[in-house]
Amino acid sequence: MRIKNDFAFSIALAGNPNVGKSTVFNALTGLNQHTGNWTGKTVECSKGSYIYNKFNFELTDLPGTYSLLSFSSEEQVTRDYLKKYPSDCVIIMTDANAAERNLVFALQVMSLCEKAVLCLNMNDEAERNGLYIDENKLSKKLGIPVVKCCAVKNTGIEELKRVLFEVCCDKIKCGINHAYIKEIDVFNSSLHKENIAKLTCSAVEICKDCVTKAGAARVNLKTRRLDGILTSKRFGIPVMLLVFGILFWITVVGANYPSQWLSLLFGAGKEWLNKLFDCLCAPAYVKGMVIDGVYTTLSWVVAVMLPPMAIFFPLFSVIEDSGYLPRIAFNLDKYFAKCGTNGKQSLTMAMGIGCNACGVTGCRIIESRRDRKIAVLTNSFMPCNGRFPVLIAVTMSFFASGANKLIASVEVALVLLAAIVFAVAVTLAVSKILSATVYKGEPSGFVLELPPYRKPQIAKTIVRSLLDRTLFVLGRAVLAAAPAGALIWLVANTDINGVSLLKYCTNFFEPFGLFVGLDGVIITALLLGFPANEIVIPIIIMSYMSCTTLTDYTGYEQLSQILHNNGWTTVTAVCMLIITMLHFPCSTTVLTIKKETGSLKTALLSMVLPVILGVLLCAVTANISKLFFI
C-alpha cells in the first residue's frame, strides 16, 4: 500500500529460470504469486510493492530467461523493459550453485542498467555442495553490491531490502565495471556468438577469483542417482505413471467422506432457508429459484468439486515444487520430437493440467510461431482444474466396482491414470497431424534445464495451493453456477403445452446425444458449461432432478443412483469421460487463445478440433458397444 506523498523507487527483478526469482518477489512484497519449478513459468511482468524506511518500493518481476541476446518472447519482454523503462535499481537474481552461467546473464543485464544488486540465492545449498563465494571480492569485480540469501527460508531478505534502499538513496555507490561488458550489444543478433564467447570468458575469469571449491566440488550424488531412475529410458515413464497413479488414489480415497459431510451440511442449510422463506412469506417462484435453483446448484458444486480439488491440487503443487515436472518434460521430449514439434510443448502440456488458460499463456516460451500454434491448439486436450472433478465424479460412480473399498479406490485411480495417458496420446497424435498438414515445417530445438531436487515447503505449498488454485477455481465455478442454477430452474419450471422448456431443449439434443453414447441432458450441460467446466455435473444433476422426484444429492453413492436411474450405463460413463476430455475449452481459455495468437480463426479452431475428435470417438465407442451387445 502506497504512503501518501512518499517517494517511490522502481525496482526490476531479473534472472534465469529456477533461481528463486518469484520466491524473492513474494518474500519482498508479501504477494501470493504462484511459484513453479519449471522453465518459463513466468511469462509476464508481475508487479508488487513494499515499504522500507517509509519509502515505497515498486517491484516488477520480469520473465525468467537464460539470455538477453536472442529473441524468444520472454527474452524480448525482459530486454525491452530494461531498455525502455529504466529502473532505480535492478535486482539480478542468481543461483549460487551455477554462478558461472548466471554471471553470463548478469553481465548482460548490467550492460542495460546504471544501478544493480546481485542477489546470490540458494547460497546454503551451494555451500553444502562445496562451493564458497566471496561476495566482497565479487562485488569489487562487478562494481555492484552482492547479497547472499536463501529465499525459501526467508534469510537475507532484510539485508537485501537494506542494500536496495542504500543504493536507491545513493548511500552505496554503484560503479558498474564496464571492462567485462565492453562492445556487448544485446540488440545486435548478428553478434550473438561473439557476445556469448566474450561474456563466458569474463564469467570464467571472475569465478576463478571469487568462487572456491572444496576440493573437487561435491556433486549432488542423490540428484544423479534419482535422475538415473526418473529420467531413464527403462524406468522414467513407469515411475511417472506410478506417481500420478498414487496421486489419483489418494484423491479418490480422501474425497468421498468430505463430500458426504458437505452435502449433509448444505442439506441442513436448505431446511433453514425453507423455514426462513416461509416466515418471510416469499412468493413460491422466488423461493423455488433461490433455494431449489441457485442454492441447490451451489451446494452440489461445492460438495462435488471441493473435496477432490482440495486434495489433488495441493499434492500436485508439492510434486511441482520438488522439481519433478521438468523430469516429466524430459521423458516426453523425444515423443514430441518424433511428432515434429518442439519439446517445450511437454512443459506447456504439464502446465495445462492445472489450467488450460495458463498452459496457453505458457506457450510463449516456444520461439517458433509454428510450434507455438500447435502447442496452443492441443493444450486443451489435457484435463484442467474444471474437468478433473467431472472425471473423478463419473469414475467414482461407475468404476468403483470392487466390494473392498481399497480395491475400488485402486480401480478408480487406474481409470483416471488411463484418462491422463489417453490425453497425452491424443495430444501427440494431433500434434503429429497438424505438423504434417496445416503447420508444415521443421521443429525448433530447445535446451531443458533440470533444476536440482528440492524439499518442498509442504505447509506453505498446501496453503498457497488451496488459496491460489482450489478456492480460485471454486470461486469461478460458484460465479458461473449461481446464474446457471437460476436459469435451469426457470426453464425447468416454465411450461409450454404442459412440457417444460428444459424438456424441449433436452429432447432436441436427445437423438444426437444417443448417437454418441450420451443423452440430451449431457449435451445441454456441456453447452451451458462453456463459461466454466466445473458446473457440468451440477447442471446434469439439476436437469435430471427437475424432471423426476429423486431426493437431493448426498454424495458419490447418491450421484451414482441418480445417474443409473436416468439411464446411464458403463458405455455412457466411458463416453462421458471421452467427451469431458475432448470438447471445447472453457470461455476463459478461448479468450486467452484469441489474445495470445491474435487470430479469431485459431480460437475457433481450438473449439472445433476437440469437439470433432470427441464426437467421433464417442460415436465409435457407442456403436461398437451396440454391435457387441455391451
Helix content: 55-70%
The poorly predicted ranges are 1-5, 32-42
Largest sheet: 6 strands, mixed
Strand content: 5-15%
DSSP helical segment count: 24
- Chain-averaged pLDDT: 81
Spatial separation of the terminal alpha carbons: 64 Å
User: How many domain regions?
Assistant: 2
Number of DSSP-assigned strands = 10
Shape: elongated
Q: Tell me the Rg in angstroms.
A: 27 Å
SS-based class: alpha/beta
| Major β-sheet strand ordering | 2-3-1-4-5-7
Structural description of this entry:
This protein is of the alpha/beta class. The protein has two domains: 8-219, Rossmann fold; 236-443 and 464-627, no CATH class. Helices cover 61% and strands 8% of the residues. The protein has helices at residues 21-29, 73-84, 99-110, 123-128, 135-142, 157-168, 192-210, 221-230, 236-279, 284-321, 325-338, 345-354, 356-362, 369-378, 387-398, 405-436, 458-492, 501-515, 520-528, 536-546, 556-565, 570-581, 587-597, 600-627, and strands spanning 8-15, 46-52, 55-61, 89-95, 116-121, 131-133, 146-148, 211-213, 495-496, 499-500. The strands form three sheets. The chain has a six-stranded mixed sheet with strand order 2-3-1-4-5-7, sandwiched between helices.
